[in-house]
Amino acid sequence: MGFILAAVGSAVGLGNIWRFPFITGQYGGSSFLITYLAFVALIGFPAILVEFVIGRRTDRNPVGALRELGSGVWSYAGWLFVVTGFIILSYYSVVAGWFLRYTLIGITEGYTLTDPTEANALFGTVSTGLDTLLFHAVFMLLVVGIIAAGVRRGIELSVKVMVPAILVMLVGLAAYGFTLDGAAAAYGYYLSPDFGTITANWTEILPAAAGQAFFTLSLGMGVMITYASYLGEDRNLAADAGIIATIDTLIAVLVGFVVFPVLFTVGIEPGTGGAGAIFVSLTSAFASVPGGRIIGIVFFGMVGIAALSSAISILEVLVSYLIDELGVARVPASAALGAAVFLLGVPVTLDLVFLNLYDLLADGILLVLGSLLLALFVGWVIPDVGRAELRKGIADVGDLDGAWIWAVRIPIVIVVIVSLYLGIVDY
Ligand code: PFF
Ligand code: NA
């Protein structure tokens, strides 16, 4: 139970609530959605199992795990994970700070702006400047404090409360979205894919959907390896992976049912919403619904907690690396890494250009590269170890392990190499 909660806590976060709606808007709504859903099922799910089998097999941190299972070169993948974690956490924390700020705005002033131009202006002040830096610092302090103290119980409890609460609030907000004037247009935009659009724009949609699938499921930097190292031999890895992918996907898809009806109603073209899409649409929704102030405070606060449990999983990979490989103690390791991550995030608080740059690099290139190395490693270097590990704890396995290793060897590798190439060109 603790494992599922921690893994769901890592998966559910800003990737679902902030990144998913704005990337979906940017890449054309339904065409992106269907590609993304296909990738979660066909690539994300097998890729979770890749990390699970490595972690449970070795009981080690990602770097140690790869060194134990493979020789020399594979341990360098661990370095890649560390670099990726640094970059992702640095901007993740800045964006999480925005959510803290919006929570505070609700408490002190309430949400009053229904005019999208004003809501946009508010987003502008929240997303850059000295206050932004301050909230980034507060968020990193929370992450470092929890990791330094090594608390696991608090995380599990917060996930137990937060995930159901977010689900319930999203369903309520989606029902509100249904009542809006723009709902019909939004559903058309979000739900009826046009395959002509996908084929015409596949060089953009494919890497974006693959990157989002890896990002949202916390794949490609060893988080799931680390968490699976705590798993017992009797756990059914496939069932656990299914639960995690399902909850994570459900939350993201629901967010679309909130954001797009609001954007269409207030007259914002979804492709132009950018990083502020979720904030502009939600503040306008909270300004209009009865009880919107309370709902808003709780919602933004819950997302802050969701972001915290994801950020913790990232810092834990970095810290466990320093502890295991360099023998640094937990508290100084957490403090030093936290300070470095904070500094790396400073440019993001000055100009959103850096947000795009970091995000494109981490999501379009580094996570995809990490997933590629892991898939190649398990699929081609240690396939028998992987299959044996997957079979444990599954009563009626059939040829699940055979189908899985096939998916890991060829389809994942192809999609990831193509995405990586397009991602690098784009960058
Ligand atoms: N999966 C997290 C989210 O959707 O917000 C973000 C994330 C966590 C990405 C951990 C990568 C990672 F290793
Ligand atoms: Na996610």
TrEMBL record:
It is found in: Membrane. Keywords: Membrane, Transmembrane, Transmembrane helix, Transport. The chain crosses the membrane at residues 29-53, 73-94, 133-151, 163-190, 210-231, 243-264, 296-323, 335-358, 365-383, 403-424. InterPro entries: Na/ntran_symport, SNS_sf, YocR/YhdH-like. It holds the Pfam family SNF. It is a multi-pass membrane protein. One of its GO terms (cellular component) is membrane. Its main location: membrane. This is Neurotransmitter:Na+ symporter, NSS family.
